[in-house]
Amino acid sequence: MSLWNATLARISSTLLSRDWTLARRMLGSGARCARLRSLTRRPLRFPLFLSRFFFWSQVIRTFVDVVGAHPELSLTHSNSRAMSPSVRLQEMIRVIRGARTQGEERGVIQRECAAIRAQFRQADNGTRSHNLAKLLYVHMLGYPAHFGQMECVRLIASPRYNEKRVGYLGAMMLLDEKQDASLLITNSIKNDLSHSSQYVQSLALCTLACMGSAEMCRDLAPEIDRLLRASNSYIKKKAALCAVHMVRKVPELGELFTPAARSLLSEKNHGVLHGAVVLITELCERNPDTLEQFRKAVPELVLMMKGLVMSGYSPEHNVAGISDPFLQVRILRLLRILGRNNDTASDAMNDLLAQVATNTDSSKTAGSAVLYETVLTVMDIKSESGLRVLAVNILGRFLLNNDRNIRYISMTSLQKIVQTDHNAVQRHRGTIVDCLKDQDASVKRRALELSLALVSAVNIRSLMKELLLFLSSCPPELRAHTTSGIFNAAERYAPSQRWHIDTILHVLTTAGGDVRDETVPNLIQLITTATELHCYTVHKLYRALITDISVQSLVQVACWCIGEYGDLLLRGECEETEPVQVTEDDVLDALETVLQSHMSSPATRGFALTATMKLSTRITHNVDRIRSIVSIYGSCIDVELQQRAVEYNALFKKYDHMSPSLSSTAPGPASSTAGGDLLDLLGGLDLYTKYTVHLHNVFNDHLFLVLNSMISSDRFFFLFVAIAPPSVTVYEKNGVTLKLQTDTQTDTGMTVTLTATNSTDGDITGLTLQAAVPKSVQLQMKAPSGDVIPAHGLGQVTQTVLLNNPNKVGLHSVSSWSPHACAHPQWTKNELLPPPGESED
């Protein structure tokens, strides 16, 4: 019984002292509380102690009720990491940081926020600032704390500085101009701006500069202008920065602050000068008239900057041996704005900029910051040429700095001026190229962009070697950009066509999977125009093809080249490179390997199939093998390949006499040959759209498509029988006359008859007519009356053409005819035809 009395006594003393933490530890969990409560309800066997025990039981029952109403008092709740609402901010931070899981942290914060809400609803108990400080910490952790906004308004209106300080801090963190509660503090801020304490004024200025809305700025602008003229330097510095915020919010207030800002330049306090320079910079950027006014202050700014550069050691402002680099940077930035597009202001600051560039130590970050701002100023104003070279040399020194950030900003600045000061930047080409080997990806990218910008006709060979070397080891994310830059540079500055072709082939071999889609047709056009290099190119591409077929773009160009110039490859004679003895079987084996490889895309197989078909007119002993290869793909699952194979099989079986002309060497895209005339005919159209046109054969009514040449990896250009003009002689040469006559014409179509006559001494046999139309025009060719034009004008061949032109576009016409099956076509072109339905002049 004495032990029980001692326990009750300890509990009662704890309750009387209101030490809830100790009481919680004594009582333990809610389960222990329940046992104590049941114990007090048992009948007592000791009447002598009845009155005393009744007293203690009442005390215990009261505390148990408190614990039941506030579970957070239990030691076992939330893993013994909860705290009472009266704990200090430091204790709350310690408990939150000690949470082992996110859920535990969230639980602690929710309970503390509930306690803070409850205390906010009570009368002023002296703990409002304490609770708001805890709430701001909760807000910093990302949890909602909007219910503390009104408490911020109350604390700002408090006369006590400690509460004002927390209230203003809460306003800057919890309020913005979109919150209605921000309007409630306008009057409090206005009153505090006139407060006798500079620290209270500072709180109001900082809050206004942080979250002041446009309405607040308009209402309080006169107060800020008054404080700009105050005698206290501490207040003037804060007022200047607050004025910057007001000008950004309400630009028309700049006129109000201009006189006061000009007078601040005469201050000696560096903090005030810094604020004044920032304010003047903002005013000049917002208003051209203000800019003209402050250009008169350039000499004063120059003297101020010289004083900073030439001043001795000042422990108050010295940073790494540089006197107040923050103020220097701000002054240089203002000078750059004032000297832009103004000769007088630029001349006044040239000497200063040269002095800063030569006397500032760049070994420290502070000095590098001042020099970098000096370089930007020199490049932006109308400075002397020698000063610009000095600025480029400073950036060149930055490239040797161990700090990657400094190297990065140096290359960024050099890239901006490489077009205007190309020769000065060229002096640092070696250092820039060395940056390609840097481990930092951003530095590599900047070095690559700058290296590509430095390419010229003079250094194309040497710089391209470095770029090709970089391409072999560059990160995957830079390969596409590198290949694109190399192609553009080679196209602009290639010293010879052979060098150009070799460079592109090297890129395709190294990074063929990262090139642009237009690389293949561009290279085909380049090879086509380089007539004297056909033999060299086909030999080189054949070697590349038998070495590796995984690079699809390279394989496509190789297949095209073999199909066009396979006879030069089989001939084995090449002066440009060491000739390779290649047999017909070797060439077909290589193409068949491409067709059967799982690495070949459908577009690549299309190139290989077309090349195989074209070789049928360039070889003599393996035609049957070619037909066998083509026929296999007549049942291919790929519709495109199947269609080509069927068409090629039709040529082999029914129109074998036309194969030589159809498989003849095709002109490249946009060339100056007959093919170029055809492309001129379709000028402005999408040359890579497949035109599907039905063509009737000159002998029978079967329909098929005639392929002339392929100019894209997966798109084809088809050449067909000529389109009809209204009425015109389209060809009259060497005794042959071709006339187009319009028979009928409607709003969206016409019927045209083509008539061919021959006045020579011999018959013209194997007549083939071809045409091209825009993709919006539908063309249908009727069967011709024959394929032989009698001599001496004794007969004629006619053919009817049906044109459907729903879009009513104007048409050119071009005609192609072959006097024999194996002869090269003869081309002619007439003027632009008006759309159907329009009259002729």
Automatic annotation (TrEMBL):
One of its GO terms (cellular component) is AP-1 adaptor complex. It is a peripheral membrane protein. Gene3D superfamilies: 2.60.40.1230, Leucine-rich Repeat Variant (1.25.10.10). It is found in: Cytoplasmic vesicle membrane; Endomembrane system; Golgi apparatus. It holds the Pfam family Adaptin_N. Keywords: Cytoplasmic vesicle, Golgi apparatus, Membrane, Protein transport, Transport. One of its GO terms (biological process) is vesicle-mediated transport. Residues 723-836 form the GAE domain. SMART domains: Alpha_adaptinC2. PANTHER family: ADAPTIN, ALPHA/GAMMA/EPSILON. Belongs to the adaptor complexes large subunit family. This is AP-1 complex subunit gamma.
